[in-house]
Amino acid sequence: MHHLVKPLSAAILVAFAATAAPYALAADDLKIALIAGKTGPLEAYAKETETGFMMGLEYLTGGKMEIGGRKLKVIVKDDQSKPDLGRTLLAEAYGDDKVAIAVGTTSSGSAIAMLPVAKEYKKVLIVEPAVADAITGDKWNKYIFRTARSSMQDALAAASTLKGGSVAFLAQDYAFGRDGVKAGKEALAATGSKAKVVHEEYAPATATDFTAPTQRLFDALKDKPQPRVLGIVWAGPNPMNKIADMKPERFGISLAPGGNILPVMKTWKNYAGTEGTIYYYYAFPKNKMNDWLVLEHTKRFKAPPDMFTAGGFAAASAVFNALSKVPSGNGDQLAAAMEGMTFETPKGPMSFRKEDHQALQSMYHFRIKKDQKNEWDLLELVREIPTAELPLPVRNKR
């Protein structure tokens, strides 16, 4: 009998080796999940995030798409901006796909649903581009890092431009809009602004007629101390043009739009001189990474990179730096390495604050240009608002 054992075990070993070989190779791939709302109301944002993420990895790896000799494999999943789907896809990415790290997602509702999954699997999730404050606030856990700016960072940037007078808000009636206004009020207090909030108006996210809410806003502002500012917190097609058509200047009211994507800002040409604040505009940052992004993006897509393109690129930089430090993707080691980590982005350097892992970053105060040289020559820089002037509170009760 003994003579049978050897050939049999050799045969088994050969068979096993044959089945194991492809897996052994696959294990060497460094897998990253990118979850985005590629269908649904935020698909324009999701598309930009994905483009920026892939271009970021290309730039950082010198076109090799590898880290430490291991091939990068990006697995893109569409959560359709649905929280239940976001949660399921992230569990699938960590569990079945065995990704080292995940990035996502477009909608704040879906991002919030994903946070506990990262904790359950003890794996890092980089949130981009969702902005809800709760993500780095009461819903946070130690595996969560955000490269995107928060509602509060947006609000602090806007508040830094308002020294006094009266403010009213028009916002979408869901988490993003309500979060934005709440942050706006807190930001005015935090920056010591003397401006008073006199009215808040919430309209359905799908609203197309703004006559009634705008009239109420005008009535609330028209006899209040100047300057009179109407702040607009809106994602997607922006009501600014419809409000401007109702001639706020009759009442000495100026509009303060939050920055938006280029196709939306293109429709603001008639409002030269209007000021606002924005997370990114391609012509503002002056650094090598942004120069490359603007040049390459314009070459490939016949248009400059947008706000969410820069965000996707920043997330890629965080991923690249993190996995260069901890190639195993071990969640606890990654989280420890990423706390306080500074990394380059098209906006300049960002750092993950130790306390809540929010990326601290500068913002931009803009003015809509009078003389626009081409279809994308939209904004001029009033000034870059440095991190030091954005006193972001820590809210995660760590």
What does this protein structure show overall?
The protein has helices spanning 2-27, 43-60, 83-95, 108-121, 151-159, 175-190, 211-221, 240-245, 262-265, 288-301, 307-325, 331-338; strands at residues 30-36, 66-67, 70-78, 101-103, 125-127, 144-146, 166-172, 196-203, 228-233, 253-257, 275-278, 342-345, 348-352, 359-360, 363-368, 379-385. A hairpin with a 6-residue loop joins β13 and β14. The strands form four sheets. It has a six-stranded mixed β-sheet with strand order 2-3-1-4-5-6, sandwiched between helices. It has a four-stranded parallel β-sheet with strand order 8-7-9-10. The chain has 398 residues and is an alpha/beta fold. The chain starts with a helix and ends in a 13-residue tail after the last strand. The chain is globular and about 65 Å long. It comes from Massilia suwonensis. Keywords: Signal. Residues 1-26 form the signal peptide. Belongs to the leucine-binding protein family.
How would you summarize this macromolecular structure in one to three sentences?
The protein has 398 residues and is α/β, with parallel strands linked by helices. The chain has helices at 2-27, 43-60, 83-95, 108-121, 151-159, 175-190, 211-221, 240-245, 262-265, 288-301, 307-325, 331-338, and strands at residues 30-36, 66-67, 70-78, 101-103, 125-127, 144-146, 166-172, 196-203, 228-233, 253-257, 275-278, 342-345, 348-352, 359-360, 363-368, 379-385. This is Substrate-binding domain-containing protein.
